[in-house]
């Protein structure tokens, strides 16, 4: 039998990955799940903290980091730039380089992480040196053009090595002049976050003016919150239409990484789809991570949601409610989760506002429709979304498209369906290598096949 991992870019898997499995046979759950789960640290916060601390003056200690492929390649990229990074369990200790990386020439590999690729390209542009930056096969296809344009406007010299608007590139870094720059946030918020993260090391104040809108605003708020936490001076209106950053750099510090709200959602969805109960014990409603609002979508579908000092708890209803249309633009990483819950609802669910997820780890709109077709559930593809109709998924072996969220969201579907096999389960390692371990701890049957 052909190895289902063949299509995946296994070079982008790290020593922290779940390795060696061809297939995961998941579910069905024998009844309602009933569990407390503690989820690993946030990918978004971990990689921001790593890049900001590496640029800062002085030492930082980051605790509760996510040990996943995205974080591993971010750390390795920083090491290739000469930053001493020590990792002990989920604690990282690193000596910041005060705006100039020790290696002024390096080849930098970013793995499959959009955060590392976008944030580090911008950070490097603010230094002096010559760098070749590349990513995984998929990362080298994902858009970078708007970031290149903005960095060039601020003085960077970027030479794309294959296509105009993607990695790999050669960057002749000679610092950023600063000034006003107009940016689009419609394709990815990470372009805006990248420019902002680099901005405290520009020679003059940087003002970013958004010409259209930002998908997933909250990630830019997380960026600004964390920049401030490391001593940067930034000002922005709530709508983020204009954001300005003063020169002055970052200062190293101790920083606790919060839990990953996106990962938590698969476990909340497990409660929803089985009519069970799941509490994520280390997540709070007050987090800036947008995916925490996925519990509001679950509430709309009939779930009971409570939050307290003990975490956030979701209880699923006897029957999930459908029959609505919803924009997932501000929490689009959960589109797959909603789409694979939707067959179990009592009416169709239309998702809008997520055209940009075609440029994520896979073309996620296309993948939803293809995957649901394989299990015999009707779905209609739209340019910027999808409509999923109620249906009973039939047994199938399903590709995971080298996309962690596809594998994790399909596992939720598998809790209510017989005979679901997910190929290349190791792809979950991009953000949650321990995903199947958590499912097992919840009592869900998981057979990982070598
Ligand atoms: O800044 C971040 O940490 C992220 C921003 C979002 O990306 P886009 O804005 O590119 O959609 C999100 O999908 C990704 O998982 C993490
Ligand atoms: C889009 C995602 O990741 P990235 O940070 O690579 O953009 C994601 O995690 O769903």
From TrEMBL:
- Primary location class: cytoplasm
Q: In which pathway does it act?
A: Metabolic intermediate biosynthesis; chorismate biosynthesis; chorismate from D-erythrose 4-phosphate and phosphoenolpyruvate: step 6/7
Summarize where phosphoenolpyruvate binds, as residue positions: 43, 114, 142, 190, 364, 405, 430
Residues reported to bind 3-phosphoshikimate? 43-44, 48, 188-190, 333, 360
Please verify whether the record's keywords include Cell division. no
Q: Where in the cell is it found?
A: Cytoplasm
GO terms (molecular function) for this protein are:
3-phosphoshikimate 1-carboxyvinyltransferase activity
Organism superkingdom:
Bacteria
Instruction: Give the Enzyme Commission number.
Output: 2.5.1.19
Q: Which family does it belong to?
A: Belongs to the EPSP synthase family.
Question: Under what name is this protein listed?
Answer: 3-phosphoshikimate 1-carboxyvinyltransferase
Q: Its encoding gene is what?
A: aroA
